[in-house]
Design a protein that fits this description.
Blueprint (H helix, E strand, L loop, with lengths): L4 H5 L9 H10 L1 E5 L4 E3 L7 E7 L2 E8 L2 E8 L4 E2 L13 E4 L3 E7 H9 L3 H30 L2
Length: about 150
């Protein structure tokens, strides 16, 4: 299934780009489907792809202690996850599990960097700036969730 620039425009990580700026990104994007309960990635996995939810919900989970994973937030339509793929660490520190049947747009991070960002540093900068904003929001959400757990 081909990914259209209009689809990418609806994703939080790319919402600020113009449609013509999304054409080359759409060319390297693919759609993947996962069943309810299926893992997209696990903690410690090598991070190579970024993901954006088209349909369904994805729980982002951390290991609280051996054998016990806790959901820290839920990704819904238009949400980007998998940011470690864009960083030097290249290792997932969370797990992503499908709460429903899920469709995601997937982009191999190295392709995004090599085929788009290295040719257009401005777009690379803007996408990474948006990524930082999204990470900061998730950290804030996680902090609030942890505080509510401590006070309950």
């Amino acid at each position: 299934m081909a990914v259209m620039p209009e689809t990418l425009k609806k994703m939080d990580i790319f919402e600020f780009l113009k449609l013509d700026e999304l054409k080359d990104i759409a060319e390297i994007a693919k759609v993947e489907e996962f069943e309810q309960g299926e893992s997209i990635f696990k903690e410690g996995d090598k991070a190579e792809k970024i993901y954006m939810v088209l349909e369904g919900r994805v729980a982002i989970e951390i290991t609280a202690y051996p054998g016990k994973r806790v959901s820290v937030y839920t990704m819904t339509k238009g949400s980007f996850f998998g940011y470690p793929s864009l960083l030097r660490t290249r290792k997932f520190t969370t797990a992503a599990r499908c709460l429903d049947k899920v469709k995601v747009v997937v982009i191999v991070a190295d392709e995004l960097v090599d085929k788009v960002f290295k040719k257009d540093c401005r777009r690379g900068y803007l996408v990474m700036k948006k990524t930082a904003e999204l990470i900061a929001q998730k950290l804030s959400d996680t902090r609030m969730q942890l505080l509510s757990l401590l006070h309950s």
